[in-house]
Amino acid sequence: MEQQVIINTQEQSLYGILHLPEVFNQEKVPVVVICHGFISSKTGQHRMFVKAARELCQGGFAVLRFDFSGCGDSTGEYKDISVPRQVEETRRVIDFVAQYPAIDDSRIVLLGHSLGGAVATVSAAHDNRVNKLILLSPVAEPFKDIVGIVGKELYDQCHKDGVVNFQGFELGAQFFSSLIGLQPLSQAEYFGGDVLIVHGSGDVEIPLNNARLYQNVYKWRGRSHCKLQVVKGADHTYSSTAWKSECFDIILKWLNRDRQNGPSVVDYPALLTS
Predict the structure, then answer these.
(1) Residue 92 in contact with residue 6, Cβ under 8 Å?
(2) Each residue of 20-57: pLDDT tens digit?
(3) 154 lies in a domain?
(4) CA-based nearest residue to 7, from 77, 130, 90, 115
(5) Burial of 158 (0-12, 13-18, 19+ CB in 10 A)
(6) 103 pairs with which residues across the strands?
(7) 168 lies in some domain
(8) pLDDT, tens digit, for every residue of 192-248?
(9) Entry's SUPFAM superfamilies (predicted)?
């Protein structure tokens, strides 16, 4: 079952799609919250997040994919985005799923892709309701990584003019300023749950070394587990069917490690909004 939800923050309305499975293994179902990346949306490039959500849902997980403000169907303008705002919006989305009756609020998983991986890292580090974290091709050094994609010339222009156009998106100076202050690697160690990192060996936008930087932080925490899986040849958005299939299979197998019992059927209550 797929239903549109609207999650209201103090300033904006975030639009999302909540996927609920027909069968699952417990009285309440675990949930995966997907945080999209830079100049993306809840749909993802070539519908990556739609396909991921449906695959995970078939595997017995609820999934909520949503648009940050200024992105996709949500209200707001892209030029006004900042990373602290996206972290706060992620918290509001967790508030929503944690109080939804069919969802097990003790099994909330954050999945972040690219810049969304950095947002998910910081969010998980400061929200003990998150018990697992999945990072897909994550940004590790936000300012360096994003300026590397946008180009220094456009960054300098934005610093001068206050706003710049990149592939049809207006980027504001506050966005770049917020990247300077974002240090996900220094925050990562505060998350106590298990972590899965997936990265494509052919990613030319965000280097594979980023995954290893995260792995180094998480494996030295002295608690929980961190696993790094490399999808051979895959690009930043897992654009081939084979790469997507391998990525989704890795995620499902990892999530299913501690699941047991047979499937049960549930009648879902009326959808809630906040």
Answers:
(1) no
(2) 998 655 578 999 999 999 999 999 999 999 999 999 99
(3) no
(4) 90
(5) buried
(6) 29
(7) no
(8) 999 999 999 999 999 999 999 999 999 887 767 999 999 999 999 999 999 999 999
(9) alpha/beta-Hydrolases
Among candidates 205, 185, 4, 24, which has minimal Cα distance to 102? 24
The enclosing domain of 250 has a CATH number of 3.40.50.1820
Residue whose C-alpha is closest to residue 79's, from 166, 151, 152, 145: 166
Domain count, the chain: 1
Q: What is the residue range of 56's domain?
A: 2-142+183-257
pTM above 0.85, yes or no: yes
Is residue 36 assigned to a domain?
yes
Could you report how far apart the first and last alpha carbons of the chain are, in Å? 20
Tokens of 168: 């049809």
**Statement: residue 157 has pLDDT above 70:** yes
CB atoms within 10 A of CB 98: 16
Q: Do the strands 163-166 and 62-66 form a parallel or antiparallel pair, or are they unpaired?
A: unpaired
Distances (CA, A) of 138 to 87, 118, 197, 228, 250: 15, 6, 8, 12, 16
